[in-house]
Sequence to fold (320 residues):
Amino acid sequence: MKAIAHTKYGQPDVLELVDIEKPIPQDDEVLIKVRASSINAAEWYGMVGLPIARIGGGLFKPKDTRLGVDYSGIVEAVGKNRNDFKVGDEVFGARTGAYAEYVCVKNIIIPKPKNITFEEAASVPTAAITALQGLRDFGKIQAGQKVLINGASGGVGHFAVQIAKAFDTEVTAVCSTKNIEIARSSGADHVVDYTKENFTNNVQKYDLLLDVSGTHSWSEYKRVLKPDTHFVIVGAPKGTPVIGPLAHVIKIKVGSWRASQKVEFFIAKFNKDDMNLLKEFLETGKLRPFVEKTYPLSQTAEAMRLFGRGHIRGKIVLTM
Ligand SMILES: NC(=O)c1ccc[n+]([C@@H]2O[C@H](COP(=O)([O-])OP(=O)(O)OC[C@H]3O[C@@H](n4cnc5c(N)ncnc54)[C@H](OP(=O)(O)O)[C@@H]3O)[C@@H](O)[C@H]2O)c1
Fold:
Protein backbone atom coordinates (compact mmCIF):
# COMPACT_ATOMS: atom_id res chain seq x y z
CA MET A 1 0.00 0.00 0.00
CA LYS A 2 1.01 3.65 -0.37
CA ALA A 3 1.94 5.66 2.72
CA ILE A 4 3.79 8.82 3.64
CA ALA A 5 7.10 8.34 5.44
CA HIS A 6 10.12 10.40 6.42
CA THR A 7 13.49 8.97 7.37
CA LYS A 8 14.93 12.34 8.41
CA TYR A 9 13.69 15.52 10.05
CA GLY A 10 13.19 18.67 8.02
CA GLN A 11 10.87 20.78 5.90
CA PRO A 12 8.12 19.10 3.79
CA ASP A 13 10.64 17.91 1.16
CA VAL A 14 11.60 15.09 3.57
CA LEU A 15 8.18 13.50 3.06
CA GLU A 16 8.13 10.56 0.64
CA LEU A 17 5.33 8.51 -0.84
CA VAL A 18 6.46 4.91 -0.21
CA ASP A 19 5.17 1.38 -0.84
CA ILE A 20 4.87 -0.62 2.36
CA GLU A 21 3.12 -3.82 3.44
CA LYS A 22 -0.62 -3.58 3.92
CA PRO A 23 -1.29 -4.18 7.64
CA ILE A 24 -3.10 -7.33 8.82
CA PRO A 25 -5.57 -6.81 11.69
CA GLN A 26 -4.99 -8.59 15.01
CA ASP A 27 -7.96 -10.43 16.54
CA ASP A 28 -8.98 -7.28 18.44
CA GLU A 29 -8.42 -4.83 15.56
CA VAL A 30 -10.35 -3.46 12.61
CA LEU A 31 -8.71 -2.91 9.21
CA ILE A 32 -9.81 0.34 7.61
CA LYS A 33 -9.42 1.45 4.03
CA VAL A 34 -8.59 5.10 4.66
CA ARG A 35 -10.51 7.62 2.57
CA ALA A 36 -9.16 10.82 4.10
CA SER A 37 -6.85 12.21 6.77
CA SER A 38 -6.01 15.74 7.88
CA ILE A 39 -3.11 17.96 8.85
CA ASN A 40 -2.48 19.15 12.38
CA ALA A 41 0.40 20.87 14.15
CA ALA A 42 1.40 17.48 15.65
CA GLU A 43 2.39 16.21 12.20
CA TRP A 44 4.25 19.44 11.47
CA TYR A 45 6.32 19.14 14.66
CA GLY A 46 6.87 15.40 14.04
CA MET A 47 8.16 16.20 10.57
CA VAL A 48 10.54 19.05 11.50
CA GLY A 49 11.73 17.26 14.66
CA LEU A 50 11.50 19.98 17.28
CA PRO A 51 14.57 19.36 19.52
CA ILE A 52 12.52 18.84 22.69
CA ALA A 53 10.32 16.27 20.90
CA ARG A 54 13.39 14.35 19.69
CA ILE A 55 14.08 13.15 23.24
CA GLY A 56 11.44 10.44 22.88
CA GLY A 57 10.93 10.48 19.13
CA GLY A 58 14.50 9.84 17.93
CA LEU A 59 17.48 12.15 18.46
CA PHE A 60 18.94 12.24 14.93
CA LYS A 61 16.17 10.66 12.87
CA PRO A 62 12.54 9.77 13.56
CA LYS A 63 12.04 6.42 15.30
CA ASP A 64 8.58 6.21 13.77
CA THR A 65 8.82 7.17 10.11
CA ARG A 66 5.04 7.36 9.63
CA LEU A 67 2.85 10.43 10.03
CA GLY A 68 -0.84 11.24 10.43
CA VAL A 69 -3.44 10.65 13.13
CA ASP A 70 -6.95 11.65 12.00
CA TYR A 71 -8.70 9.27 9.60
CA SER A 72 -12.03 8.47 8.02
CA GLY A 73 -12.68 5.38 5.93
CA ILE A 74 -14.47 2.10 5.35
CA VAL A 75 -14.08 -1.11 7.35
CA GLU A 76 -12.40 -3.72 5.14
CA ALA A 77 -11.82 -6.55 7.64
CA VAL A 78 -12.62 -7.25 11.27
CA GLY A 79 -10.55 -9.24 13.81
CA LYS A 80 -12.29 -12.36 15.14
CA ASN A 81 -12.76 -10.86 18.64
CA ARG A 82 -14.60 -7.78 17.37
CA ASN A 83 -18.35 -7.75 16.96
CA ASP A 84 -18.93 -3.97 17.08
CA PHE A 85 -18.10 -3.25 13.42
CA LYS A 86 -18.70 -5.06 10.14
CA VAL A 87 -17.19 -4.91 6.66
CA GLY A 88 -18.47 -1.84 4.79
CA ASP A 89 -19.12 0.34 7.87
CA GLU A 90 -18.14 3.98 7.44
CA VAL A 91 -16.00 5.13 10.36
CA PHE A 92 -13.70 7.89 11.59
CA GLY A 93 -11.22 8.25 14.40
CA ALA A 94 -7.55 8.47 15.29
CA ARG A 95 -4.59 6.16 14.70
CA THR A 96 -0.90 6.93 14.21
CA GLY A 97 0.26 6.33 10.66
CA ALA A 98 -2.99 7.56 9.11
CA TYR A 99 -1.26 9.12 6.08
CA ALA A 100 -1.67 5.75 4.37
CA GLU A 101 -4.14 3.71 2.34
CA TYR A 102 -4.90 1.37 5.27
CA VAL A 103 -4.70 1.43 9.07
CA CYS A 104 -5.49 -1.18 11.72
CA VAL A 105 -7.37 0.35 14.64
CA LYS A 106 -8.20 -1.00 18.09
CA ASN A 107 -9.57 1.89 20.14
CA ILE A 108 -10.50 5.18 18.51
CA ILE A 109 -13.00 4.01 15.90
CA ILE A 110 -16.43 5.65 15.74
CA PRO A 111 -19.29 5.33 13.21
CA LYS A 112 -19.07 8.24 10.75
CA PRO A 113 -22.09 10.56 10.85
CA LYS A 114 -24.07 10.08 7.65
CA ASN A 115 -24.59 13.81 7.12
CA ILE A 116 -20.90 14.60 6.54
CA THR A 117 -18.38 13.58 3.89
CA PHE A 118 -15.26 11.48 4.48
CA GLU A 119 -13.19 14.64 3.99
CA GLU A 120 -15.17 16.51 6.64
CA ALA A 121 -15.04 13.57 9.05
CA ALA A 122 -11.25 13.32 8.73
CA SER A 123 -10.89 17.00 9.62
CA VAL A 124 -12.54 16.55 13.02
CA PRO A 125 -10.71 14.26 15.50
CA THR A 126 -7.56 16.06 16.71
CA ALA A 127 -8.70 19.65 16.26
CA ALA A 128 -12.23 19.23 17.63
CA ILE A 129 -11.27 17.06 20.61
CA THR A 130 -8.67 19.69 21.51
CA ALA A 131 -11.30 22.43 21.35
CA LEU A 132 -13.76 20.35 23.40
CA GLN A 133 -11.33 19.38 26.16
CA GLY A 134 -9.86 22.90 26.31
CA LEU A 135 -13.24 24.55 26.78
CA ARG A 136 -15.02 21.95 28.91
CA ASP A 137 -12.36 20.16 30.98
CA PHE A 138 -9.81 22.94 31.48
CA GLY A 139 -11.91 26.06 30.84
CA LYS A 140 -14.92 24.76 32.84
CA ILE A 141 -17.23 26.41 30.33
CA GLN A 142 -20.74 27.32 31.59
CA ALA A 143 -23.85 28.49 29.76
CA GLY A 144 -24.22 32.28 29.68
CA GLN A 145 -20.49 33.01 29.96
CA LYS A 146 -18.59 35.42 27.76
CA VAL A 147 -15.91 33.37 26.00
CA LEU A 148 -13.07 34.63 23.82
CA ILE A 149 -11.27 32.40 21.31
CA ASN A 150 -7.92 33.89 20.24
CA GLY A 151 -7.11 32.21 16.92
CA ALA A 152 -10.66 31.34 15.93
CA SER A 153 -10.48 30.53 12.23
CA GLY A 154 -8.02 27.62 11.92
CA GLY A 155 -8.45 23.94 12.71
CA VAL A 156 -8.86 24.11 16.49
CA GLY A 157 -10.32 27.64 16.50
CA HIS A 158 -13.27 27.15 14.13
CA PHE A 159 -14.35 24.06 16.08
CA ALA A 160 -13.85 25.92 19.39
CA VAL A 161 -16.23 28.71 18.33
CA GLN A 162 -18.92 26.15 17.43
CA ILE A 163 -18.43 24.06 20.58
CA ALA A 164 -18.54 27.17 22.78
CA LYS A 165 -21.84 28.08 21.07
CA ALA A 166 -23.11 24.52 21.70
CA PHE A 167 -22.54 25.26 25.42
CA ASP A 168 -24.78 28.36 25.08
CA THR A 169 -22.10 30.99 25.62
CA GLU A 170 -21.54 34.41 24.05
CA VAL A 171 -18.49 33.99 21.83
CA THR A 172 -15.94 36.53 20.63
CA ALA A 173 -13.69 35.22 17.86
CA VAL A 174 -10.28 36.74 17.07
CA CYS A 175 -8.82 36.21 13.60
CA SER A 176 -7.43 38.11 10.58
CA THR A 177 -9.43 40.05 7.99
CA LYS A 178 -9.51 37.27 5.40
CA ASN A 179 -10.99 34.83 7.90
CA ILE A 180 -13.75 36.96 9.41
CA GLU A 181 -16.38 35.12 7.38
CA ILE A 182 -15.49 31.67 8.70
CA ALA A 183 -15.54 33.00 12.27
CA ARG A 184 -19.00 34.46 11.64
CA SER A 185 -20.30 31.32 9.93
CA SER A 186 -18.99 29.26 12.85
CA GLY A 187 -21.50 31.21 14.96
CA ALA A 188 -19.34 33.82 16.71
CA ASP A 189 -21.43 36.61 18.25
CA HIS A 190 -18.58 39.10 17.86
CA VAL A 191 -15.50 39.00 15.64
CA VAL A 192 -12.30 40.97 16.31
CA ASP A 193 -9.95 41.46 13.36
CA TYR A 194 -6.52 41.34 14.99
CA THR A 195 -4.94 43.24 12.09
CA LYS A 196 -7.06 46.26 13.00
CA GLU A 197 -7.76 45.95 16.70
CA ASN A 198 -5.98 44.57 19.78
CA PHE A 199 -8.70 42.91 21.87
CA THR A 200 -6.58 43.19 25.01
CA ASN A 201 -7.09 46.97 24.88
CA ASN A 202 -10.89 46.67 24.88
CA VAL A 203 -13.08 47.29 27.90
CA GLN A 204 -14.98 44.00 27.53
CA LYS A 205 -14.01 41.32 30.10
CA TYR A 206 -14.34 37.55 29.66
CA ASP A 207 -15.13 34.52 31.83
CA LEU A 208 -13.03 32.18 29.73
CA LEU A 209 -10.25 32.79 27.23
CA LEU A 210 -9.10 29.93 24.99
CA ASP A 211 -5.73 30.92 23.59
CA VAL A 212 -5.15 29.02 20.37
CA SER A 213 -2.63 31.37 18.78
CA GLY A 214 -0.60 32.59 21.79
CA THR A 215 -0.03 36.05 20.44
CA HIS A 216 -0.05 38.16 23.64
CA SER A 217 1.72 38.32 26.99
CA TRP A 218 0.06 37.53 30.31
CA SER A 219 0.01 41.23 31.27
CA GLU A 220 -2.07 41.89 28.15
CA TYR A 221 -4.41 38.89 28.53
CA LYS A 222 -5.17 39.58 32.18
CA ARG A 223 -6.58 43.01 31.28
CA VAL A 224 -9.59 41.32 29.67
CA LEU A 225 -10.14 38.50 32.18
CA LYS A 226 -12.57 38.77 35.07
CA PRO A 227 -11.10 37.69 38.45
CA ASP A 228 -11.28 33.94 39.29
CA THR A 229 -11.91 32.89 35.69
CA HIS A 230 -10.14 30.44 33.38
CA PHE A 231 -7.39 31.01 30.83
CA VAL A 232 -6.54 27.97 28.72
CA ILE A 233 -3.42 27.76 26.57
CA VAL A 234 -3.93 25.53 23.53
CA GLY A 235 -1.15 26.62 21.22
CA ALA A 236 1.45 29.25 20.50
CA PRO A 237 3.69 30.56 17.78
CA LYS A 238 6.55 28.22 16.86
CA GLY A 239 8.75 29.99 19.47
CA THR A 240 12.36 29.21 20.22
CA PRO A 241 14.18 26.58 18.14
CA VAL A 242 14.65 24.23 21.12
CA ILE A 243 11.37 24.10 22.99
CA GLY A 244 9.10 25.63 20.34
CA PRO A 245 5.66 26.70 21.59
CA LEU A 246 6.54 25.65 25.15
CA ALA A 247 8.48 28.93 25.42
CA HIS A 248 5.16 30.79 25.36
CA VAL A 249 3.59 28.38 27.86
CA ILE A 250 6.47 28.91 30.32
CA LYS A 251 6.28 32.72 29.97
CA ILE A 252 2.53 32.74 30.62
CA LYS A 253 2.82 30.32 33.56
CA VAL A 254 5.61 32.40 35.16
CA GLY A 255 3.80 35.70 34.49
CA SER A 256 0.53 34.43 36.00
CA TRP A 257 1.78 32.55 39.07
CA ARG A 258 0.07 34.93 41.50
CA ALA A 259 -3.02 35.55 39.36
CA SER A 260 -6.54 34.86 40.62
CA GLN A 261 -7.37 33.32 37.24
CA LYS A 262 -6.71 29.61 36.71
CA VAL A 263 -4.15 29.27 33.94
CA GLU A 264 -4.07 25.87 32.26
CA PHE A 265 -2.01 24.24 29.54
CA PHE A 266 -2.99 20.77 28.37
CA ILE A 267 -2.34 18.19 25.67
CA ALA A 268 -5.56 16.73 24.28
CA LYS A 269 -6.10 13.00 24.74
CA PHE A 270 -8.35 10.80 22.62
CA ASN A 271 -11.14 8.84 24.24
CA LYS A 272 -14.30 7.24 22.86
CA ASP A 273 -16.74 9.23 25.00
CA ASP A 274 -15.49 12.56 23.68
CA MET A 275 -15.40 11.23 20.11
CA ASN A 276 -19.01 10.08 20.50
CA LEU A 277 -20.00 13.53 21.79
CA LEU A 278 -18.36 15.11 18.74
CA LYS A 279 -20.27 12.63 16.55
CA GLU A 280 -23.50 13.78 18.22
CA PHE A 281 -22.57 17.45 17.65
CA LEU A 282 -21.91 16.63 13.97
CA GLU A 283 -25.19 14.75 13.55
CA THR A 284 -27.21 17.54 15.14
CA GLY A 285 -25.49 20.25 13.10
CA LYS A 286 -23.86 21.87 16.15
CA LEU A 287 -20.48 21.13 14.56
CA ARG A 288 -19.87 21.79 10.88
CA PRO A 289 -16.30 21.17 9.68
CA PHE A 290 -14.83 23.63 7.20
CA VAL A 291 -12.24 22.21 4.80
CA GLU A 292 -10.26 24.89 2.96
CA LYS A 293 -8.44 22.54 0.62
CA THR A 294 -7.94 18.85 -0.12
CA TYR A 295 -4.83 17.23 -1.60
CA PRO A 296 -4.23 13.67 -2.79
CA LEU A 297 -1.90 11.65 -0.52
CA SER A 298 0.86 11.96 -3.15
CA GLN A 299 0.86 15.75 -2.56
CA THR A 300 1.20 15.62 1.23
CA ALA A 301 4.40 17.72 1.07
CA GLU A 302 2.50 20.47 -0.75
CA ALA A 303 -0.31 20.30 1.81
CA MET A 304 2.23 20.59 4.64
CA ARG A 305 3.82 23.62 2.99
CA LEU A 306 0.44 25.35 2.94
CA PHE A 307 -0.18 24.41 6.59
CA GLY A 308 3.28 25.71 7.54
CA ARG A 309 2.49 29.14 6.06
CA GLY A 310 -0.45 29.45 8.50
CA HIS A 311 -3.70 31.41 8.18
CA ILE A 312 -5.65 28.35 7.01
CA ARG A 313 -9.44 28.56 7.01
CA GLY A 314 -10.57 25.50 8.96
CA LYS A 315 -8.65 22.43 7.89
CA ILE A 316 -6.47 20.93 5.15
CA VAL A 317 -7.41 17.37 4.24
CA LEU A 318 -5.59 14.54 2.41
CA THR A 319 -7.53 12.04 0.32
CA MET A 320 -6.52 8.47 -0.52
N1 LIG B 1 -2.73 21.49 23.26
C1 LIG B 1 -3.08 20.58 22.37
O1 LIG B 1 -3.41 19.43 22.67
C2 LIG B 1 -3.10 20.99 20.91
C3 LIG B 1 -3.73 20.18 19.96
C4 LIG B 1 -3.79 20.62 18.63
C5 LIG B 1 -3.18 21.83 18.29
N2 LIG B 1 -2.55 22.56 19.24
C6 LIG B 1 -1.92 23.85 18.93
O2 LIG B 1 -2.96 24.77 18.61
C7 LIG B 1 -2.46 25.75 17.72
C8 LIG B 1 -3.43 25.93 16.57
O3 LIG B 1 -3.53 24.75 15.82
P1 LIG B 1 -4.43 24.77 14.51
O4 LIG B 1 -4.34 23.42 13.91
O5 LIG B 1 -5.76 25.36 14.81
O6 LIG B 1 -3.57 25.82 13.63
P2 LIG B 1 -4.07 26.77 12.46
O7 LIG B 1 -5.15 26.08 11.71
O8 LIG B 1 -2.85 27.21 11.75
O9 LIG B 1 -4.74 28.03 13.25
C9 LIG B 1 -3.98 29.07 13.80
C10 LIG B 1 -4.91 30.18 14.24
O10 LIG B 1 -4.14 31.24 14.81
C11 LIG B 1 -4.63 32.47 14.27
N3 LIG B 1 -3.64 33.53 14.34
C12 LIG B 1 -2.46 33.65 13.67
N4 LIG B 1 -1.86 34.80 14.02
C13 LIG B 1 -2.69 35.40 14.94
C14 LIG B 1 -2.64 36.61 15.69
N5 LIG B 1 -1.59 37.46 15.56
N6 LIG B 1 -3.65 36.90 16.53
C15 LIG B 1 -4.72 36.06 16.68
N7 LIG B 1 -4.83 34.90 15.98
C16 LIG B 1 -3.82 34.58 15.14
C17 LIG B 1 -5.04 32.13 12.87
O11 LIG B 1 -5.94 33.14 12.40
P3 LIG B 1 -5.72 33.79 10.91
O12 LIG B 1 -5.55 32.62 10.00
O13 LIG B 1 -6.97 34.54 10.66
O14 LIG B 1 -4.46 34.61 10.99
C18 LIG B 1 -5.73 30.79 13.10
O15 LIG B 1 -7.05 31.00 13.55
C19 LIG B 1 -1.06 25.31 17.31
O16 LIG B 1 -0.12 26.06 18.05
C20 LIG B 1 -1.00 23.85 17.72
O17 LIG B 1 0.30 23.43 18.07
C21 LIG B 1 -2.50 22.16 20.54
In short: The longest helix spans residues 125-138. The mean pLDDT is 96.
